Amino acid sequence: MANTRSAEKRNRQAQKRRTRNVQVRTGLKSSVKKAREAIVQADPAAAKQAVAAALRTLDKAASKGIIHKNAAARRISRLAKAAAKALQPAK
């Protein structure tokens, strides 16, 4: 339990940030999942759109400090690589 007014305020701020971060992380996971599903279905138009949305959400989360910038870069790289591999014309 907080002993000082400043500690009580810090607790309130941390709770606000936590709820916001949880919402953003949940949306992030959903967008990446949708992109991966679109890639598996091999629909180029839907996959391209879903991947672009996922990349945008990853970048936003990294810029806000919700996930680490290197973690975002790693996820973006893997997602883009999977999309490129799935969407390239079959030989």
Write a structural description.
- The structure is a single chain.
- The chain is built from three helices and no strands.
- It is mainly α and 91 residues long.
- It has one domain (5-87): Ribosomal protein S20 (Methane Monooxygenase Hydroxylase, Chain G, domain 1, Up-down Bundle).
- The model has no long low-confidence stretch (mean pLDDT 93).
Quick structural gist:
The protein has helices spanning 5-40, 44-64, 69-87. With 91 residues, the protein is mainly α.
- The radius of gyration is 18 Å
Number of helices: 3
Average pLDDT works out at: 93
Query: What structural class do you assign from the helix and strand content?
Result: mainly alpha
Number of strands: 0
Overall shape: it is: elongated
End-to-end span in angstroms? 64 Å
The share of residues in extended strands comes to under 5%
Q: What is the CATH superfamily?
A: Ribosomal protein S20
CATH class: Mainly Alpha
Helix content: over 70%
Question: Within the CATH hierarchy, at the fold level, what is the topology?
Answer: Methane Monooxygenase Hydroxylase, Chain G, domain 1
Number of domains: 1
* CATH arch. level architecture: Up-down Bundle
Could you give a short account of the major beta sheet? none
Identify low-pLDDT runs: none
Q: Provide the succession of SSEs.
A: HHH
